[in-house]
Amino acid sequence: MVAVSADGTVEDVAWFTVDHVSATGTARRGAASLARRVGMSEQRAGEIALVVAELTANQINHAGSGSLLLRVRHATSGPVVEAVAVDSGPGMVNVAASLTDGVSSAGTLGIGLGTLSRLATSFDIWSRPASGTVVAAAFAAERAAHPGVPAAVGITRPMTGQEVCGDAYAIRNDDGVLTVMLADGLGHGPLAAAASSEAVRAFRGAPVGGPLALLTAVHRALSGTRGAAVAVARLDADEVRYAGVGNIAGVVLDGVTRRGMISHPGIAGAQARTLREAVYPLPPGAAVVLHSDGLTDRQDLGAYPGLLARTSLVVAAVLLRDFGVRRDDASVVVARTTPAVPA
Prior knowledge:
The protein is α+β, with helices and mostly antiparallel strands. It has two domains: 10-140, 2-Layer Sandwich (Heat Shock Protein 90); 152-335, 4-Layer Sandwich (Phosphatase 2c, domain 1), CATH 3.60.40. Helices cover 26% and strands 31% of the residues. It has helices spanning 22-37, 42-63, 95-98, 112-119, 189-205, 211-221, 312-323; strands at residues 10-18, 66-75, 78-87, 122-127, 133-140, 152-157, 167-174, 177-185, 228-235, 239-245, 249-253, 258-261, 278-281, 287-291, 330-335. The strands form three sheets. It has a five-stranded antiparallel β-sheet with strand order 1-2-3-5-4, with helices on both faces. A five-stranded antiparallel β-sheet has the order 6-15-14-11-12, with helices on one face. The longest helix has 22 residues, at 42-63. The chain is globular, with a radius of gyration of 19 Å.
């Protein structure tokens, strides 16, 4: 498994390509190993491995192929293993029915999603006919635990051929107010990752402040690195305060409209003459999305009915699947003032 430091609360990030039946065993072993490494019992590790095996088998049987993200999120109650299964297959007509044991459209036993609902601490699904499926599952050490569903999450994925991602994100909660940061280190590989990791360190260590103050702290900290594109967004009750430099895109999505937020030209740590903060409205139920140039900026959630009702992790995974490119590091952060309720 490839270990990638994302934001200090998520680690041991590993992506698996699921394009052959053998990938099911590889992913299952990776899930069990990850659970053991963070101190979960053999029984719990086996349960997580079983769900991951079923999810990847479903990808082979129903979609032909897919990908799987495994990682650990360090919640206040303890480590949580997260598994996100993503495919672009035929999708599901009736998600609720698919959660019932014995229901299958591929001639199998139909136990995969039923196992998920029994063994996962929480899970969420987005699927539409002809639009593929995304399943996100969280596993605490104890099945009955309640680690909570985060309102803000991020996902990073290295470009094809690279073992580390040059993008990184961080999330702060200062007295109940969420602030998120996304950094895209210049170039690719270890030096880009070093720059974005330094941005994370500076952001998390800076005093409480608005996006401009936090971006300024990051800019100063990156002076000894190759630099990065960086954006910071703070979510208040009905507005977003935003400051960015370089080619990080910031948008507010409400399912109908897409409002872009302005990042100014430059490179944090090098050339950034203009650092400014702007304020944008945040409609009820809307999501703030930051993404690197590893995603195209053509997101139109009008084609994804119901997606914003899903958890931030599912929203992020769908955006990365449909708008991410493989020729670059890719990262996306999705944040809301109130977390969506999972399935």
